[in-house]
Amino acid sequence: MTLEAVREATDVTRRGRDAVEVVRRTARVLVVDAEPVVRHGLRALVAAEPDLVHAGEAASPRDALMAAERTRPDVIVVDIEFARDERPGLDLVRALLERCRGVRVLVLTGCRDREAMMRTVRLGVHGYLRKGADTADIVRALRSVLRGEGVFDPGTNAAPLQVLRDPSGDDVPDMCRNASLTDRENQVLKLLAVGMSNREIGARLVISEATVKFHVRNLRDKLEVRRRTEIVYTAARQGIV
Fold first, then answer.
1. Which of 91, 128, 143, 207 is 20 to 30 Å from the Cα of 182, by its Cα?
2. CA dist 153 to 159, 165, 189, 209, Å?
3. pTM above the 0.85 mark?
4. Is residue 184 predicted with pLDDT exceeding 70?
5. Three-class SS of residue 82?
């Protein structure tokens, strides 16, 4: 075999491996939203990423279920508001998770109803973002949920706990208590949920920043998450908050 033939064969092999790698890494994304402009924007966003493929789209819960069964996506981006009513969206999320085993559901919505958000999270969605998030945040969220990580929009963190009383007090509602968490860990969790930094939490609870980090680390361990950003999301899914 000549040197040129060897080079050509090597190039073919390399291209083949590259093609296999692209196929292995690409994930199919289904977009569900009643607004055409949103569907168009997400379609373009997904198409621009080498590891994502636009699998299809739907504008209604009925069409979404048919599209999910037809395209078998890896992740579904869905708005829970249809005709300004979140109830069909919640039913859709429940049906998607029940019928499409293994699919990841990322909610991207303009819904600002706190209870609707909590119900959605407790259904078992893998991520929750508000419309208005940066495109880079949406792409990161897609990749995170595909890796099995939870994504909880920092802008929604305050919602689960707005009804709770002063975290520095002793009267913590039962809905925010968990047998495996100490009183201090529950207090830190509540302040994480309203978006406070370690320094702000320390100032509020009159403890050092190092002590806050210690409690945050314990929360990660007890909730079995790797990142600080997953703590509130996981706690909400488990009904702790």
1. 128
2. 11, 22, 16, 24
3. no
4. yes
5. strand
